Amino acid sequence: MNSSRMSLYMQAVRGPLLLITLGVLCMLHEVDVISFRFTWPVLIIMVGVLVLIERAVAPPIPVQPNPNAWAGYQARPGWTSSQNPAGPTAANPSGPAGGPQGGPR
Prior knowledge:
This protein has 105 residues and is mainly α. 47% of the residues lie in helices and 0% in strands.
């Protein structure tokens, strides 16, 4: 079986396996082996195990490259490597070279 068929198989058997588990727990409760109030976490554990198995056998989802990944990082026309590509900022509105210099107080 390939991984996509195995993943579909795991999705198909999840419900029946949970019903069988619930039936066994109810049967154990009825024959006074153990109370259902102590065994209900088994259902939660069963769901978690089935989901983990399903994700383990699922085929990997291919990730398409984003052509706009660097769109926000393009330099402005006329930019040289000695300039800040972001331009003047709110903290330093006169640019990287000018403005008042703060000294020690």
